[in-house]
Amino acid sequence: MADIKSKGQKLKDKLLLNDKNGWEGMSDAEKKNITKFCDGYIKFLNTCKTEREAVKEAVALAEKAGFKLLSKYKSLKPGDKVYSVNRGKNIILAVIGSEDMENGLNVVGAHIDSPRLDLKPNPLYEDSDFAYFKTHYYGGIKKYQWVTIPLAIHGVIALKDGSNVEVRVGDEEDDVTFVITDLLPHMAKKQMEKKLSEGIEGEDLNLLIGSIPYNDDKVSEKVKLNIMNILNEKYGIVEKDFISAELEIVPAFNAKSLGFDRSMVAGYGQDDRVCAYTSLQAILETKAPKKTAICILVDKEEIGSVGNTGMEAKAFETFVGELLRLSKQDSDINVLNRIFANSRMLSADVDGAFDPIYASASEKRNASFFGKGVGLNKYTGARGKSGANDANAEYVAELRKLFDDNNVQFQISELGKVDEGGGGTIAYILANKGMNVIDCGTPVLSMHSPYEVSSKYDVYMSYKAYKVFMK
User: Fold this and answer.
1) Distance (Å, whole) CA 178 – CA 247
2) Is the previous residue joined to 272 through a cis bond, with omega within 30 degrees of 0?
3) 225 and 305: one domain?
4) Do the domain assignments include residue 258?
5) Residue 130: is it exposed, middle or buried by C-beta count within 10 angstroms (0-12/13-18/19+)?
6) 29, 451 contact by CB (below 8 A)
7) Is 2 within a domain?
8) How many domains does the chain have?
9) N or C: which end of the chain has fewer CB within 10 A?
């Protein structure tokens, strides 16, 4: 005999929030579908540890899905799939809709840069028969997390002849590795008396890269010379070429499924490549939308969205202007302003998931949880919402209906306690153009660390949310 719900149970179902874990009651077929999707995501994480690598992979996936460079078109029609790359570090993709663009766009934007260490312009030095690279950390990191872990070097060296030398060393099983050393506990009394934020200093994040001297008694800095000789033979570079290089130090270990139940993903760069991958997959599968659908994968978010490849640059406006011109529509500034005012955007960025080990940092009633779907942040900012985009209630209601009607499980949260948490995304930049914008992304544990964690269920719900939004 089936259980009959009491009046109070029925009332609770009707009136109170349902925060059921999404894995509960799921069929084996649904679990298999999520696993398959996340296998592709894990592969993406391992292929794309820098913003340049993410753009390169996005181009390959886009062209396989039928997207073409915008510059190759003389005109556009509904259903056309186009993309544009900005300096190899950000990419914008669009599927042209059947409606006039002045009616607005459906935009999903994520960032593809992640906290890391960059080589300084003059990085190579020798000390006590060791050769090192000097680094400068990028984005908000806990410096102590980057010592005594295997590290790899990814990036490009731009030569005076206009060519680029690509570097990717330290990832493969039979490859070399690199490390930043730390004091042994027996000699670290003074270090361990310091505050956690001061235990490792930025100028001490020096990458150990060699220790064999060049065999010539008539030269100094023999270890440095030997390393430079190896680099010259392998890459054809001299020390001065580091001036025009962009070399990034990233964790050497690969992303993997986490847990005996394989329910989670552990890997570097999930902030924000989890939202980049899911939004990219969503637009690759978008066909014949009413409103033009756009996916932005942008650089420099971790340092304020600055520079000519960050969201503050004019690349997005230029892209939309080109879409208008090739669609034979007006493209003056007033038209652009009307388009943006009629547009909707999901700022696809991660949220800090509730961690029971550090429960005191969160306000549990307004935190995001693993297994409960994609996270909505109505506002970000810090303290009194300083620097926030605060989404309109009407827009939130619109998204609630969209997600509920399409079986997209979502949760709404804020990042940490009022006086302790807070953060920023690209949301306010698009909101300043007049768009309706809300932050919408995957909850992540250990955010900004070298090895972040996400729930496969939430990853899949993020993809599903972006896909129904783009339609």
Assistant:
1) 14
2) yes
3) no
4) no
5) middle
6) no
7) no
8) 2
9) N
Residue 81 covered by a domain: yes
Cα separation values, 361 from 46, 205, 282, 302, 390, Å:
31, 28, 33, 22, 22
User: Could you list the pLDDT tens digit for every one of the 471 residues in the chain?
Assistant: 567 889 998 898 889 888 889 999 999 999 999 999 999 999 999 999 999 999 999 999 999 999 999 999 999 999 999 999 999 999 999 999 999 999 999 999 999 999 999 999 999 999 999 999 999 999 999 999 999 999 999 999 999 999 999 999 999 889 999 999 999 999 999 999 999 999 999 999 999 999 999 999 999 999 999 999 999 999 999 999 999 999 999 999 999 999 999 999 999 999 999 999 999 999 999 999 999 999 999 999 999 999 999 999 999 999 999 999 999 877 677 899 999 999 999 999 999 999 999 999 899 989 999 999 999 998 887 778 877 788 899 999 999 999 999 999 999 998 888 877 777 899 999 999 999 999 999 999 999 999 999 999 999 999 999 999 998
Q: Are residues 80 and 132 in the same domain?
A: no
CATH number at residue 97: 3.40.630.10
**Beta-sheet strand order (sheet of 436-441):** 68-69, 81-86, 90-95, 293-298, 106-111, 344-347, 436-441, 374-377, 410-412
For 77, other C-beta atoms within 10 Å of its C-beta total 11
Residue whose entry in the numeric block shows the structure tokens 């756009």: 294
- The answer to whether residue 460 sits within a structural domain is yes
**DSSP summary character for residue 312:** T
- Token pair 């900004």: residue: 448
- Please tell me whether the overall predicted TM-score, pTM, comes out greater than 0.70 for this model: yes
Cα Rg, the chain, nearest whole Å: 24
Same domain membership, residue 450 and residue 437:
yes
Say how many Å lie between the first and final Cα of the chain, rounded.
43
Using an 8 Å Cβ cutoff, are 86 and 315 in contact? yes
Same domain, 298 and 185: no
Q: d(Cα 60, Cα 54) in Å, to the nearest integer?
A: 10
Two tokens at 416? 């940490």
Range of the domain at 218: 116-251
3-state secondary structure of 342: coil
Verify that 200 and 160 share a domain, yes or no: yes
Q: Say if residue 340 is in the same domain as residue 419.
A: yes
- My answer on whether 129 and 160 are in the same domain is yes
Q: DSSP 3-state assignment of 68?
A: strand
CB-CB contact of 334 with 169 (8 Å): no
